[in-house]
Design goal:
Elements lengths: L1 H14 L17 H15 L16 H7 L5
């Protein structure tokens, strides 16, 4: 489900020291900034054709376009 994927994404970012204290501030939606930003990022990836809009619920499946772009990311 979306919540589990978001939690795992934030866990990975936290483990890689990507998040700051500001990311844990509660925003107007009642979520942390990290959770809210992750939701917006998912929408942006979907709208950009990088993750499938037809995936099974809770699965963020990369499209061919997404796979190509993911290969350029260096962490």
């Amino acid at each position: 489900e979306k919540k589990k994927v978001t939690q795992k994404t934030i866990e990975i970012m936290n483990n890689n020291k990507v998040l700051s204290d500001a990311d844990y501030i509660i925003v107007t939606t009642g979520e942390t900034r990290a959770v809210n930003t992750t939701a917006w990022a998912r929408n942006s990836l979907k709208n950009g054709g990088k993750i499938s809009s037809n995936s099974i619920r809770g699965i963020w499946e990369l499209t061919e376009k997404g796979i190509i772009e993911a290969k350029t990311i260096v962490i």
